[in-house]
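Would you mind writing out the residues of a protein together with its fold in token form for me to study?
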Amino acid sequence: MWGAEGFPLSVTAAIEPASAAFCAASEQHRAMVAVHVLNGPNLNLLGTREPATYGAVTLAGVEERLKAKAAAANVELTFRQTNFEGELVGFIQQAGLSGAGVIINAGAYTHTSVALRDAIKGTDALAIEVHVSNVHAREEFRHHSWMAPVCVGVICGFGVASYDLAFDAIVPLLEKRAAKPTG
């Protein structure tokens, strides 16, 4: 007897468990991908601070959106916010040293903190800088980022969808990095 794939049923029966095992192994491999979403000062006020500039979605709303995306993609997600620069440096170091990707909205620290830049560079973190507003359409002092030169990309101006775009961009980069042979 012949199976649907054109192989004898005995061969088809042997292929299906192997395919299932391969798919399970692939899913296990994807489970190893982790993303840390790190938020700096005043982002705890998202949704209430200057809604004309930043919108009405809260940081908790952003977190829920990304948790759903992460669950669907089988990605481990860590979501944090702090108003303290040193704590943000520690979050970056933890993520970078563990091999996790970093989506970072450093808020005003973007324009002032060499320490955040050095944490990304020093841990070889795969990082994407995000901003809810288009920082280049705002005050001159917001046009410079200390982090951008050590990030794989910068996404700004798409409202809270900037986070979604960053997530969609970083996951394949992390999978590619994880697939590279070490040694």
In short: The radius of gyration is 20 Å. The chain is about 45% helix and 15% strand. Residues 9-31 form the longest helix (23 residues).
